[in-house]
Amino acid sequence: MTFSRFTLPYYILGFLLAAALGLLLWGAFTDALIVDEQAHIPAGYAYLYRLDYRLNPEHPPLLKALSAFPLGFLRPAFPDDRPSWQEEINSQWTVGDEFLFQVGNDANLLIPLSRLGSILLTLLAIFFLYRLGRENLGSWWALIPAALFALSPTILGHGHYVTTDVAAAFGVILATFYFLRFLKAPSQDRLFAASVALGIALLIKFSTVFLLPYFFLLSLFSAWIASPTWSRALLTAVKNRVGPTLLITFAAYAFVVYPVYAVFTLRYPEARQQADTAYLLSSFEGGPPAAGTICKPMRCIAEATIAATKNPFTRPLAQYSLGLLMVMQREGGTNTNYFLGGVSSSGTPLYFPLVFALKEPLPSFLFVLAALVGILFLFFRNLPYWRRFHKFAANNFEVCAFLLFAGIYLGWSLRSNLNIGLRHIIPALPFIYLAAAWIWRQWLEGGLISARNAPESFSRTSHATLQWTFALFLGMWLITETALAGPYFLSYFNQIAGGTWNGYRYVTDSNYDWGQDWLRLQAWIQKRNSDNDPGNNIEKIAIDHFGGGNPRYYLGERAVVWASSKGTPTTEEIRWLAVSVNTLQSAIQPTVKGFTRNPEDEYRWLTNFRPPKPGMGNIPTPDFRVGTSIFVYKL
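User: That's the sequence. What structure does it adopt?
Assistant: Structure tokens below.
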């Protein structure tokens, strides 16, 4: 086998994909069911094998259906004879518990098999990120954003779950790749490819709808850099850019999104869809307007959605619209979260920047931070002279496109109340990495800060050697950091936060504890009970469980579901308590002004038994710790 400078990058990409696959499979077969999977797995199975969309309408179907595909070969039982399916509305959590744990299926086989679809989309995201970078950075430089993404503990942690965040990143990368290709050289084939790619993205996560304004802004921006004046740019955009972009959007919905929704609602009873939709939107924007009054604009959309369920042709559109409206309703809602020493139900613009700084591996963080300084340097150097900036944008359209999407997506995320995980900005990460790699290329190749600015005693050769040595150092550091993070990728925190084992002090929820360690608790209890030491045996254990899964399925009669409000388990002669750290932090940390909590939910009996250590985020010291997120107390 021979290597050349043309083929070697592809072998390195293959190595990255193989390494990511191994790490993702490691997580898929060792992590327990996490929160969202309990709803997504049965919903996907219902879409694909029952063509019924009554479960989990607040997420598009593609990732869930793809993940359900391997399950069909096992012919698992489905709880379609139970009230949760027949009578209750969107009872996704109950159906998930019944499907996985109560009707005789092997959850230990169904759960990891369902994760193969997510792993496939994660690998495709890495591959198309490389292709997007290759067309705009070159074969070698494209490896950098691909590696930053493939070796990110955040991506490895979430990329093997049946959740939509990493899958959405794939959709955004895919759609952007084909749309940029169309803008560079419009053709019918490229318009078709861009339409299909956009449709795929829209079928993965509703937040990918931001691609629509993004593509229109890109169209205007590309017209501006091709024209000397704004007026001529506007004419060019309308004539050559906006029309095709509208056509791509229409084709994506008409020939990709609509047919998929049409198939997956085929056996969803019409009367049931009408009743479900009316109920789920009953409180949206204050509910239906009073008789004789005009509805609010957004409520009018909800009313139109309900009406659309009554027409066979518009039923698929109604289901899609229902999901969008449910997401909008949730965005305006609240989620209890622990962040930097306080418990709150509201969001803060500091959340995502600070969590990114705490969870991004330091080599990646330094890489991005240095690039941010470079971007600001370039921007302010060109800003005072619009002609110069116009020339810069014309010569570097791609990096402007990357920064534009990252700005749109991050700007929306910063104002969100859903401060429950860094995962919500995962679709923006590939574009941050692409822009950072572009800036580093300018620096290392002398286009940003050249050796001419260095002291005379510092030769050009020495300058280049130092640059490349620093870049290589960051690369090796990232590889080492990721290897040491396994298998606790979800809970990874960098050295700024004191490492993975101390991350819970700063923030929890899907950043740290999503229920992933309950299989490890099962193994830990089995090991203690096999030591032939009566003092080590655990006959009963109280479990306050945050996450998916069913403790009784894994631990049988030994597990007793518990909560703070039930008081100390010793009243029922139970001497062991296993509690999720997310539950503890939400229960015992100080509340932010305006947030109230029931005293019986504050685990006061536990903090009286074992007071927390002083300091931010500290909790009662456990006797044992299972995985990163389960704290075990011997009472």
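The first helix runs from residue 8 to 30.
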